[in-house]
Specification:
alpha/beta, Alpha-Beta Plaits, Rossmann fold, 3 domains, 9-stranded mixed β-sheet, 4-stranded antiparallel β-sheet, 17 helices, about 15% strand
């Protein structure tokens, strides 16, 4: 493909990404993969270049663009070399016409930028949400320790005690260390969130929103495979991935429990008031993960954010009923919005006088309301809010 043809290909990909964002379609990474699957003529260099162009445009636009061309013109406005490729030649984009639509710049749609600013995320802190995410792994203490691990590439320790940061593009899943369960791909911020649980060997711990079980595996390692660890979720497809992952990691104590949305207490009736710790990694807006899926900010609406907030409050109450007196509840969201973080904890404590917020001593993060915040700009991690609550004896 010529450089101009790559630009036109990126525009076509962007059209699909924009349509999917409006209609709740597939994520951008899947769209890119499927687009190339039917275009075998494109070599690895073409694939890489088109992907980079498409994501560069996605990161450059605040509001949802009118079209893929408008999104690419946003980039071309600041890049004369790219603008020159709009030359109308074979397989190239048509020449740029005066006054044609150009997507608006910004970190996010205006309403969402306002939400972030009200939560203390603006300027360089907001811009960092759209940088490229690093590749982190967690060393699995059930099988080895960070100091003894030998990898095919050089890695740097992160602020998490078992965290390593790898060079971009490292093919982790092809390594013997991965196949043997010695490492798991997990952002350092996610690892630090697991530290907040303080899970100990012999305890009864419930991961209430386990998903595919990344945090469950970290908890099993912290517990040295001794105790009871229940991984719950309402998504059968995601939860079904955990047994295979647990077998690879040697996490023998991880059990799964499928929940019905809105009827979680029925499935967990045997655990009422019995758990030492409950982790609520609640569904949220995902504003802290935009570095990995930047088009997600085009998918979020104000009504969806309100729905997430209501669900988070309900899950906090469900989790509270599972903890015995003297036990703890750890609330986590991969969001930087106070509505999903500090405000949720404030509201919970205002309606539950038998709970208090406990101070957290973690290797990264900044105090925010009743918890701490991790952010790409300040901590080099995905964005998280983490709070630990204790049930008063």
């Amino acid at each position: 493909m010529t450089p101009a043809a790559r630009v036109q290909a990126a525009i076509e990909v962007l059209d699909l990404v924009i349509a999917a964002a409006r209609d709740n379609g597939p994520p951008a990474d899947r769209i890119v993969s499927e687009w190339f699957r039917s275009r075998r003529f494109a070599g690895s260099g073409d694939r890489r270049a088109v992907r980079e162009l498409a994501y560069r445009a996605i990161r450059s636009c605040g509001e949802v663009p009118e079209s893929g061309r408008a999104a690419m013109l946003r980039v071309a406005n600041d890049d004369p070399v790219l603008a020159a490729l709009f030359d109308g030649s074979r397989h190239a984009p048509a020449p740029i016409e005066p006054g044609e639509p150009v997507a608006e710049p910004g970190v996010a749609p205006r309403w969402l930028e306002s939400e972030l600013a009200a939560s203390g995320i603006a300027g360089s802190d907001a811009a960092a949400l759209l940088t490229r995410a690093p590749l982190d792994i967690r060393v699995n203490r059930l099988k080895t320790v960070r100091e003894d691990l030998v990898l095919p590439v050089a890695a740097e320790p992160t602020s998490a005690p078992d965290g390593l940061r790898l060079p971009a593009g490292a093919q982790v899943e092809q390594w013997d260390a991965y196949r043997g369960g010695l490492v798991e791909v997990q952002d350092t911020g996610s690892q630090i969130a697991c530290l907040a649980v303080g899970a100990q060997a012999g305890e009864a711990v419930i991961d209430l929103c386990a998903g595919a079980g990344g945090k469950t595996l970290a908890l099993a390692a912290a517990m040295a495979n001794r105790g009871t660890l229940i991984a719950c979720d309402t998504d059968r497809a995601r939860l079904s991935k955990l047994p295979e992952r647990a077998a690879r990691a040697g996490a023998t104590i991880a059990e799964t429990l499928l929940l019905d949305p809105g009827r979680e207490n029925e499935a967990l009736v045997a655990w009422q008031g019995r758990a030492d710790a409950v982790l609520v990694d609640a569904p949220c807006s995902g504003t802290g993960t935009w570095r990995r899926n930047p088009e997600a900010r085009w998918r979020l609406s104000e009504s969806q954010l309100a729905g997430y907030s209501a669900l988070q409050a309900r899950l906090l109450d469900v989790a509270a009923g599972l903890v015995h007196r003297g036990g703890r509840l750890v609330y986590v969201t991969c969001s930087l919005l106070d509505r999903e973080g500090a405000a949720q904890i404030e509201a919970f404590l205002s309606r539950r006088n038998d709970w208090r917020a406990d101070p957290l001593e973690l290797p990264a993060g900044t105090a925010r309301g009743g918890g701490i915040r991790l952010s790409p700009a300040q901590d080099g991690t995905d964005g998280f809010f983490i709070a630990r609550l204790a049930r008063i004896c």
